[in-house]
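Standup notes, protein team

Yesterday: finished cleaning the Sphingomonas xinjiangensis set.
Today: RND family efflux transporter MFP subunit structure.
Blockers: none.

Input for RND family efflux transporter MFP subunit:
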Amino acid sequence: MTAAGCSKPVPEQPAKQRVTVATALQRDVVDWDEYVGRFEAIEDVQLRPRISGTIDRVLFADGEAVRKGQPLFVIDPRPYRAAVGQARAQVAKASATLRNARSEFARAGRLLATQAISREEYEQKQAMVGTTAADLQAAQENVRSALLNLEFTTVRAPVAGRISDRRVSPGNFAAAGETVLSRIVSTDPIWFSFDGAESLYLKYMRQARAGERGSSRTSANPVEIQLADEPTYRWRGKMSFVDNTIDGNSGTIRAHAVVANPDGFLTPGLFGRARLLGSGHYKAMLIPDEAIITDQTRRLVYVVGGDGKAQAKVVQTGPLVQGLRVIRAGITPNDRVVVEGGTLLQPGTSVDARRITLEPRAQDTSPNAVPETAPLPSEATAG
């Protein structure tokens, strides 16, 4: 008796996971680092009188723009006019004394020739000429000093800019070098001041040594600034200063950029966000943010190999450019990166890949400024 053979059913193959893949966009990229800071006047003057006296007149409107040399306050000039008159009278007196001394010295010379006076008397007359000549010079200098003090009774703007309100009124007494009359701040150009991290300072110095980006101490690297209520970085400036020490408490270094402000819109104290050229040009690949998977401290992307299986690759990410994330290292231009459907993948998973072509997702709003040197930090631009 023959038993009928039983065939085993063939197990069904698991369905391949559907994913969307694309090769990364390639761009020449320049990094831009972001900072926060405030605008600061290049010239900030506490206005104090150079002579003491009673305020006679105020010649400006509180808060107005003033030009350099513009009269602002008048201190009662009458005592100083009198001092000029006294000094000039002293000059006249000293001149007369000198003329008399010279006449007596000439007479003494003739008498000495006939031995009518002694050598000692002659030398006394000679010394008197020198003394009276010095007295005349001192009197003339006193006139100059008195004229200066008279000139200082009109207090003028030492710099161009915008003046604050008056701190004294007519009738108040102002003490030389002590009483604050007002304050003037320059507005055009204006500084944008900020503090940079020690790590960024070290990066910039190494880039400068490698010839990738000029140091902001010697190169006017471009800066763009966004005000608190603005959607874009519309204010442009150039770096002009980096301090010579790093603050030991904060681990930061002071710096500022110069910004043109011809209409005076920007005012000292305004808050702003700035982006500073942070690198030279380098090749980078761009992929969507959702293609990147965070695994504790690592960032991964999945690529589909020639065998149709998913492979995980560790990548080094950069800033957003045109709505896509910069990948600095970890993938090649030919890798088929999983841009959709990668969250449930495991290495070695067979996939059904649908290929698309990546396009920029946003307009490039990065700075248009060109670095002075062939110039790598956190905001970037597509070149």
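Follow-up from PR in the comments: The first helix runs from residue 78 to 113.
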